[in-house]
Amino acid sequence: MRLRVVLLALAATAVVLVLLLGEDDDDAAAAAVVAPVPPFNPSRVKAVSWQPRIFVYKGFLSDDECDHLVTLVSEHRRRRRRRPWWRTRHNQSGYSPGRTSTGMFLNKRQDPVVSRIEERIAAWTFLPQENAENMQILRYEHGQKYEPHFDYFHDKINQVRGGHRYATVLMYLSTVDKGGETVFPNAKGWESQPKDDTFSECAHQGLAVKPVKGDAVLFFSLHVDGVPDPLSLHGSCPVIQGEKWSAPKWIHVRSYENPPVVPKDTRGCADKSEHCAEWAAAGECGKNPVYMVGAEGAPGQCRKSCNVCDS
Ligand SMILES: O=C(O)CCC(=O)C(=O)O
To answer: What does UniProt give as the signal peptide span (predicted)?
Structure first.
């Protein structure tokens, strides 16, 4: 009887392993057939504004790369629907106020295609890969939009990991028939941008970039001295016809992958919420360290319960 139980357990483990490895093989095989674009070509880059600094790269991604990124999200959703409970822990959903589109974060270096796009972004921006957040994939259906907002932060807590968002590379994974433009309402001199009636009404409120599959926009949210640039206000106009897929990559001032270790100290030692003990017992100090523990200069809410105080 005991032997039968052991054999059954071994068989079940083997099935799980085959499922896990099989999925990775599929990913690698799919990635191998995705055509890359030609090497980085500066003649494809155009400066469309200097205040704020905005550049458009025509054909930054190949059609295959765009399709691959969209497929990753669609596949993930399909798998999640039939995913057993032990594999549901994957990716964040990326909610933002003011944005009605849906979004999902990929993993960094998730597969060879994602890796080479991340390398190309670093080559274009001269900013290290470790300063970047995971790539997000956004899908805007009819009427969906992103209200104008800043990518830099207004609080200290969000700056603990990597500081402000310094630059954004926004890649378009589809061409939108009408609407869906990325608009910069504060860009200096936007009124002189020639616009015909192929632009949506919303796009007439600022400097507008039309979403064209494979193109990418690079803009800077901070001045070169690190001070936030309010001219970098931007948003996505509502999609009027078609579907918009875009992929923002936010790049911080410092390393986002290796944030500084929080030193033990006695500053900010009191809990700031009556729920701290309960959250700490539920493991939130480890799962949500920025909020719970904080960092130097920006103490978290529950330092006492997280036991990071000396006394
Ligand atoms: O999708 C767009 O055009 C805008 C996206 C955006 O503003 C952002 O992700 O910060």
So the answer is: 1-22
pLDDT digits (tens, 9 = 90+) for 59-99: 999 999 999 999 999 888 777 766 554 444 334 445 566 77
Pocket of ligand 1 (CB under 6 A): 138, 146, 151, 170, 182, 234-236, 246, 248
Specify whether 130 is located in the same domain as 217: yes
Flag whether 12 is in a domain: no
Decide if 7 is inside a domain: no
CB 304 within 8 A of CB 270: yes
CA distances (Å), origin 51, targets 114, 134, 168, 203, 256: 31, 27, 15, 18, 26
Residue 170 located in a structural domain: yes
Q: How far is CA 220 from CA 140, 156, 163, 253, in A?
A: 23, 20, 14, 11
Q: Give the three-class secondary structure for 32.
A: helix
Average pLDDT over residues 102-126: 95
Q: In terms of domains, do 79 and 228 share one?
A: yes
Q: Which of 232, 252, 272 is the last residue of a domain?
A: 252
| Predicted structure pTM score | 0.75
Residue numbers of the domain that contains 267: 261-310
Residue 115's φ and ψ, nearest 5 degrees, are -60, -45
Whether residues 179 and 210 fall in one domain: yes
CA of 11 to the centre of ligand 1 (A): 47
Structure tokens, 253 = 């001032």
Q: Give 175-241 as a DSSP string.
A: --SEE--EEETT-TTGGGS---TTS-TGGGGSEEE---TT-EEEEESB-TTS-B-GGG-EEEPPEEE
Between the CA of 249 and the centroid of ligand 1 the distance, in Å, is 10
Q: What is the pLDDT of residues 197-225, one digit of tens each?
A: 999 999 999 999 999 999 999 999 999 99
